[in-house]
Design brief:
The protein is α/β, with parallel strands linked by helices and 270 residues long. It is built from seven helices and twelve strands. The longest helix is centred in the C-terminal third of the chain and has 17 residues, at 253-269. It binds adenosine-5'-diphosphate (ADP) and magnesium ion.
């Protein structure tokens, strides 16, 4: 049997979600097809040379282990490790910088700048959101009134600035390679992690697909996070191409089975 090194942080504490449960489930399903071993990214080096593929999953925010992450990326390149996801994306795996690029290219994304000098690029807003470029799991994310924002003395290039969007709800689209597997949304705005299956339209799917096509991930799982504005449009919040949490245990069984099968086949391909 082929060997998989499955990277995860089983002890990671995320608000409202249990990453470890999801990874135990997925790893358990993959074991019918592969020999699977689980490890924290910190422990990868000793095992990675012996694995046919390295699967990078719910390893938490890389803010918590930056050096380990960049060391790993270096070895992936040097040793040409076969990884899933492949580390050739332009989105979250390189920080949130891509939101500036998508804004400049007029994609349907929450307008984003990284300097107060460019604030006029954004639509005027009573409240703004600021977030670190390398953030995840809402670490460092803050809401600030327009007046307060000016007083912040933000260092240009360090922090992203967006208008605060008063959206109806958030919706996520989950892809394996270029196939849309399912979508989930948070019907209650105040409970972002209580998700229900979302019955998407062709237009919604086309919206999500735009970002998958823009990105350059050859093999992997991506989650397109969007919000539905009051006037009914979808705007990209985040394109998670590093380690998207999948809410896979909340998806109905037939969809989950299809996802696991497609995931195993996608890993086979690398
Ligand atoms: N510009 C915004 N306006 C309103 N809410 C936002 C905005 N940006 C982020 N949020 C809220 O914060 C959450 C986390 O933001 P996100 O950009 O996805 O960062 P993270 O990488 O931490 O998940 C979003 O799911 C959304 O609920
Ligand atoms: Mg997010």
């Amino acid at each position: 049997m082929k060997k998989i090194l499955y990277l995860t942080d089983l002890a990671y504490k995320a608000k409202g979600r249990d990453y470890s449960k999801e990874d135990i489930y997925i790893a358990d399903r993959l074991k019918d097809r592969y020999d699977v071993v689980l490890a924290h990214p910190k422990c990868a080096e000793g095992f990675e040379d012996h694995a046919d593929a390295v699967v990078f999953r719910n390893t938490g925010s890389v803010i918590g282990y930056k050096d380990i992450y960049y060391d790993f990326l270096r070895r992936v390149e040097e040793k040409r490790l076969k990884t899933f996801n492949s580390f050739d994306g332009k989105a979250d795996m390189r920080g949130k910088q891509y939101l500036l690029e998508l804004t400049a290219e007029a994609y349907p994304v929450i307008p984003t700048v990284d300097s107060m000098d460019d604030i006029n690029v954004l639509p005027e807003s009573e409240t703004y959101v600021i977030k670190p470029k390398d953030g995840a799991d809402s670490i460092g994310l803050e809401f600030a009134a327009a007046e307060e924002l000016k007083k912040r003395g933000l260092v240009p290039g360090k922090t992203l600035i967006q208008p605060a969007i008063d959206f109806q709800y958030e919706v996520s689209f989950y892809f394996i390679n270029d196939k849309l597997e399912y979508a989930m949304y948070a019907p209650d705005k105040t409970k972002r992690w209580e998700l229900a299956e979302y019955d998407y339209t062709d237009e919604d799917a086309a919206f999500a697909r735009k970002f998958i096509e823009w990105n350059t991930v050859k093999h992997g799982i991506q989650r397109v996070d969007a919000c539905r504005t009051r006037d009914g449009r979808l705007l990209l919040v985040e394109l998670e191409d590093l380690n998207p949490y999948l809410s896979i245990l909340e998806v109905k069984e037939s969809v989950r089975n299809q996802f696991l099968q497609d995931m195993a086949e996608a890993i086979d391909k690398i």
